Amino acid sequence: MSALAKAKKSDELEIVNPFDLKAIGSVPMVGWDDVDKYLEVAHGLFRNRNNWLPSYKRIDILKKAAKIMEERFEELAFQIANEGGKPLIDARVEVTRAIDGVGLCIKELSHMAGKEIPMDLTEAGAGRMAFTSREPIGIVVAVSAFNHPLNLIVHQVAPAVAVGCPVLVKPADDTPLSCKAFVDILYEAGLPEEWCRFVACDIPTAEKLVTDPRVAFFSFIGSAKVGWMLRSKLAPGTRCALEHGGAAPVIVDGSADIDTMIPSLLKGGFYHSGQVCVSVQRVFAPKKQAEDIAQMLADGASKLVVGNATDEKTECGPLIRPREVDRVSEWIEEAKSEGAKILTGGKKLGDTTYAPTVLLNPPDDARVSNMEIFGPAVCVYSYEDMDKAIEQSNALPFAFQASVFTKNLDTAMKCVQELDATAVMVNDHTAFRVDWMPFAGRRQSGYNTGGIGYTMHDMTQDKMAVIKL
User: Fold this and answer.
1) What is the CATH topology of the domain spanning 7-244+445-468?
2) What distance in Å separates the CA atoms of residue 197 and residue 187, rounded to the nearest whole number?
3) Active-site residue, 338 included
4) β-pairing verdict for 401-405 and 398-399
5) Per-residue confidence (pLDDT) for residue 10, from 0 to 100
6) Where are the alpha helices (DSSP H) in 172-257?
7) CATH 3.40.605.10 occupies which residues in the chain?
8) Which end of the chain is more exposed for a tag (fewer CB within 10 A), N or C?
9) Given the residues 83, 243, 315, 324, the one annotated as active site
């Protein structure tokens, strides 16, 4: 449990604003006895198919939930800013996405269809017809991250509700209020409580929940260290999806439109103070342009307003915990001592904030170059050979999204083909996403594919009927 979100009582988790560290609310904690009962009830619900909620009822619940979210739009946005430190301007975008995500679950249900399987391709199958349908996989357990405290919950919980899976959701310790708000909205919209449980609990209880043999599908968004550890302990038969992070690379070609690129990279690098799994971190630019590009980024970064995310003027909020500020500071000081040039930032602004920072040519073995910084820092590297820049981009043990800025189609396609990423953005930053696209990490960055439709597919399974005529 984090130092900021700590147990006020043995049964209560206190939440603070990450900028001023003032208490803003609390949520009830549960122990294993309660969680075990939740699992047993959910297991019974799923095993008795007469208990399953038909699609039209699930659709009605989700429609009502989306309507309630629209009515509470500003309340939800303020809560995201207040507990998670995401500036209001971006928190409002998150609420819009979350509402759209619930609607997307409804639309995707119409695509959850089976297909006919031809049987008379051999004599052995002749005289039969066969078709498949999709049915819910079973109990879903979702463990979520702090950085999108409402939308990530929607991505993990709403698909489970949509396809008819009982779901237990454990939010991040630092940002449980948005999660509880969404679960309560589902109840208000008509979902029986036994179909979705809010589970704020300690780490041993969470691990016991995740690895319980009654769990059919485990959805995890968070650190690679924790995610891969939990996957290694899953009960036999439990499926999973893991979403971790990376150190997203950007290739800048000599033909790139610099005037449009700089604002894009600033947004992709400093959105939510860099606390995004696909945030722009490593920018590779031609040697003749690298210093100028880095300086333009530095000029833009130096103008960003840092402060309490609940202030309308704030563009970069706090890091989620003071220890993260200390870590970012340590990494940047290390890079500076090893030869990186700090063009702007490079300092703490307080216990909870760090100045937006641009570094030029940090060494390859510095942590800012080979680990996910998850903070407000962008590194610019000069290159003379694009093949070498692509090789360096691909050199890390994780890969997620990448991008290239160019006016040359051949260069764009070269990067699309050769960058090791699940998505390569052309003339856009690495953090671009819409919620119906596949979203996934490769290698250590994740396992399986996110995106609402893909998640709904993973939370269902094929069943085939073979009929002898």
Assistant:
1) Aldehyde Dehydrogenase; Chain A, domain 1 (3.40.605)
2) 10
3) no
4) unpaired
5) 54
6) 176-188, 203-210, 224-232
7) 7-244+445-468
8) C
9) 243
277 an active-site residue? yes
CATH topology classification for 248-434: Aldehyde Dehydrogenase; Chain A, domain 2 (3.40.309)
| Confidence at 8, pLDDT banded by 50, 70, 90 | very low
Q: Which residue has the tokens 């396809």?
A: 163
Query: For residues 77 and 91, is the Cβ–Cβ distance under 8 A?
Result: yes
**Contact status, residue 317 vs residue 309, Cβ threshold 8 Å:** yes
Question: Rounded to an integer, what distance in angstroms lies between the CA atom of residue 133 and that of residue 114?
Answer: 4
pLDDT digits (tens, 9 = 90+) for 175-207: 999 999 999 999 999 999 999 999 999 999 999
Contact residues for 213 (Cβ-Cβ < 8 A; gap 6+)? 235, 236, 237, 238
Q: What is the dihedral of CA 189, 194, 197, 199, to 10 degrees?
A: 150
- How far, in Å, CA of 282 to CA of 21, rounded? 31
Catalytic residue, candidates 165, 196, 277, 415: 277
**pLDDT band per the 50, 70, 90 thresholds, residue 437:** confident
Place of tokens 């630019």: 285
Count other C-beta atoms under 10 Å from residue 12's C-beta. Answer: 13
Are residues 89 and 315 in contact, defined by beta-carbon separation less than 8 angstroms? yes
Render pLDDT for 200-210 as a digit per residue (tens, 0 to 9).
999 999 999 99
For residue 60, CA distances in Å to 157, 179, 457 come to 16, 21, 20
Q: Kindly report, residue by residue over 39-98, the tens digit of the pLDDT.
A: 999 999 999 999 899 999 999 999 999 999 999 999 999 999 999 999 999 999 999 999
Q: Residue 24: which region, alpha, beta or left (left: phi > 0; alpha: psi -120 to 50)?
A: alpha
Radius of gyration of the chain, Cα coordinates, nearest whole angstrom = 23
